[in-house]
Amino acid sequence: MFNLTTLLVPALMSGSLFDPSERPSLHAAMEAHTRFYYGVQALPFGIGLTATAKDAAAVDALRAYAAGGELAGHPFDYLSAYEGASGIGLRGGGATPSSAFRYMALKQEGASDAALAPAREAVIAALEATHVAVAITGVPGRLARGIARLKMPDGRPVPGATPVYVPLKDDSGAPLPEPKNNGADRADNSGGALPEGMWYWQDSCSKDQIVGWAMAMATLYDAAMGDPTIDQSLVTRLQADAKAVGAMLREKVPLLALDGQTYEYDLVILDADGRPTQHHDLNPHGLDGLWLAPGTTVYNVFNTIMALGIVKALYHVSGDPELGAFLYDELIGKRCYHAMLSPSTAPCPGGWPGGVTPDESALDYIYGAELTNFSNVNMAAIALFLNLWFEEDAARVEPIRKYMETRWWAPDGVPQAASRIGQPYFEAIHALTTADSVTTGRMDDVAALLEEFELLPYTSAMRVNCDEAELAAGSCLALDGTTTLTLNPKLNRSDSPIALEPLRPGIRSPSNFDARSDPFEVNGGDESGLGLNPGGDLNAAYWMLRWAPERAAGTILTSPNARPWPPEPDPVPVDEAPVSDVESPEADARATDEGDVVTGDTSGSDLGSGVSDLGAPTAASGDDGGCSTGRSGTGAGPFGLLVAFFALVWMRTGGRRGGVARSS
User: Fold this and answer.
1) In the prediction, which pLDDT does 350 show?
2) Which contacts qualify for 597-600: CB closer than 8 Å, 24 or more apart?
3) What confidence category does residue 27 fall into, taking pLDDT thresholds of 50, 70 and 90?
4) First-to-last CA distance in the chain?
5) What proportion of the chain, given as a percentage, has pLDDT over 70?
6) Using one digit for the tens of pLDDT, what is the confidence trace for 100-131?
7) Where are the beta strands (DSSP E) in 528-656?
8) What is the dihedral of CA 292, 295, 298, 299, to 10 degrees?
9) Cis (ω within 30 of 0) for the bond into 177?
10) 3, β-bridge pairs
């Protein structure tokens, strides 16, 4: 049981975890990175992008700018390209807390109007971009995988490759491409809602992209809601977008299950062409294209965390009572999704399906030893944040927080665990959502990590710690000349050599989003060294910790605007973070039949599936039969499902060896 105390305002504590009056070298480095991030990487539309410099001289000029100098001419003059639309939902949306928490931190510190103005503009630009991601698809509630800007409001072209558009449908109305892929360039489909010729997008929004967009929406809402200096019509529009995406996730979609029958499932990501996206399943009965029949006792923990977190974020923003009822009465009340993450903490009062407890039938693939897909670890981190940050009710969050602490943050015997790999983004997420003590002393290591990243600028230059002879010998002296790396005899999921311990940032391979990259990999980068990584997750970690107060064990933080359920009027905006002042009771969850519908038999074993312009496995199963009880499952037996699942996991974690495309 957590002993929770109330935190009225951060000022009542001993200061923020990254108090600007302390650690001057950290603040100088990160504020310089913030200047570069918004001045170059996020310049097209307020969200940090990977860019490519024209040549080595351009890198030198940008490095001088990062050190505090000025550029001769426009930043675009030094770049050959910004990245395209693919992956912006995760890498951009997932980093958007950098804008939200920066603005909230500076307001909390009493910053001058001159300091607040650019931070406010960054929030507004991100609000605009997040709206584009919904509006550009042309179908309510459908989200772009990512967006890209073609030209600025003044007509200046944005450096980048020319997109090759694929129509949503052919002349006969059949969706394109066939088969569905993991994202195609699409022309603006907003029907005039966006200015002509300014934007394009990619479709097939996957799980990592939608959780990134949800992170952006929810944190931007907190930063902007009720602020008299921000046009509140932007907030109202954001609420409408979140409501529409939430409605999309409630739609019932007929999909073929492993038992050869078709059932209707919700929590499926749908696209503007009318089909589910390639990596579409958020429902706990989905296993990346494989579907378990309603009533099956096996379920996907990862999807449970993702579904709860995304819907929680969308409800937080929209306040939509229908979405709230779906979350609290259906997913939590009937299906017991939250309880399935920690069944011993919050048992399902109606009993588990078939008498099999979740611990016995849960499929949890977040960690996979050397083959760990760190994109999954990162998605889980964001989803856990969304689950915990926007919920004040202790009964609902206790099993989720227990899962976070024991299965994501620090599971026993897992070297790849979030707490052990030196990722500032994970450190910040945990610091804001844990009930453990969080002090400035704990932050010393996080500050050191951030200062080790070479962010000014963060180039993609190749880092080779181990040459061929050292790889063969199983040991090498790292680039810093002092660290000895002992190699793991096994390779990672991309068939690359890895060390037995995670590498420090100073010798680690560069990444466009470090929190989703393998910190054990000993060599990486590109030969040209012209790539400019945004470092958005690192910037977000800094500003989240600069906002967050130091606090004692038992004191937890939640969003200052967390919505209660049953609903009350829209919360009064608060810049500080109050905390639930309750003892954690047993979770109040009820297991009932969820009423899945068999829509038809199938034969065979095929497993198919049917603005304004800008200036800048322990969880239960899903929409289908998640936590339902009293019905005998019609699906394949647990053994057969487990065999299919482990084959899937091998393909997913094995990456190229398994031949399965993973969402970026």
Assistant:
1) 61
2) 597/252, 597/263, 597/264, 598/261, 598/262, 598/263, 598/634, 599/254, 599/262, 599/263, 599/264, 600/254, 600/261, 600/262
3) very high
4) 38
5) 81
6) 999 999 999 999 999 999 999 999 999 999 99
7) 531-532, 598-601
8) 70
9) yes
10) 583
- For 488, the token pair is 């793991």
pLDDT score, position 360: 63
Is there a contact between 438 and 551 (Cβ–Cβ < 8 Å)?
A: yes
Which residue in this structure is represented by tokens 């905006």? 573
CB 47 within 8 A of CB 92: yes
Checking DSSP bridges between strand 51-53 and strand 261-265, what pairing results, if any?
unpaired
Average pLDDT over residues 39-46: 98
| Cβ neighbour number for residue 198 with a 10 Å cutoff | 20
DSSP assignment of 361-410 equals HEE--S--GGG--HHHHHHHHHHHHHHHHT---HHHHHHHHHHIIIIIIS
Identify the CA nearest to 58 among candidates 42, 37, 81, 38.
Answer: 81
Are the CB atoms for 261 and 602 separated by under 8 Å?
Answer: yes
Query: Which residues lie across from 16 on neighbouring strands?
Result: 549
Q: Count, in order, helices (H) and strands (E) of the chain.
A: 18, 20
Q: Whole-number mean pLDDT of the chain?
A: 86
Report how far apart, in Å, the C-alpha atoms of 177 and of each of 139, 140, 165, 407 are.
18, 21, 11, 39
Continuous segment of H or E residues that includes residue 360 = helix 358-361
Asked if 312 contacts 390 with a C-beta cutoff of 8 angstroms, the reply is yes
pLDDT in tens, 255-290: 999 999 999 999 999 999 999 999 999 999 999 989
What's the length of the chain? 664
CA distance 75 to 188: 26
pLDDT at residue 607, as a whole number: 24
**C-alpha span between 176 and 271 (Å, rounded):** 11
Residues 609 and 385: their CA atoms lie apart, in Å, by 31
Distances (CA, A) of 138 to 22, 188, 471: 48, 8, 51
Residue 616 has pLDDT above 60, yes or no: no
Percent composition of the chain: helix, strand, coil (DSSP 3-state, to 5): 40, 15, 50
Q: Half-sphere exposure of 635 toward its Cβ, with a 13 Å CA cutoff? A: 32
- The β-bridge partners of 202 are 146, 185
Distance CA 421, CA 119 (A): 31
Residue 121's contacts (CB-CB under 8 Å, 6 or more residues apart) are 615, 616
Q: How far apart are CA 207 and CA 66, in angstroms?
A: 34
Q: What is the pLDDT of residues 314-331, one digit of tens each?
A: 999 999 999 999 999 999
Residue 345 pLDDT exceeds 80 = no
Distance CA 541, CA 141 (A): 29
Q: Cβ(460)–Cβ(525) under 8 Å?
A: yes
- Is 46 within 8 Å of 82 (Cβ atoms)? no
Using only C-alpha atoms, what is the Rg of the chain? 24
Tell me whether strands 362-363 and 199-202 are parallel, antiparallel or unpaired.
Answer: unpaired
Of 356, 396, 262, 246, whose CA–CA distance to 307 is shortest? 246
Q: Please give the DSSP secondary-structure letter assigned to residue 555.
A: B
43: phi then psi, degrees, rounded to nearest 5: -60, -40
**Which stretches of 426-494 are assigned E, i.e. beta strand?**
463-464, 475-477, 484-491
Helix axes 443-452, 24-36, angle to 10 degrees: 50
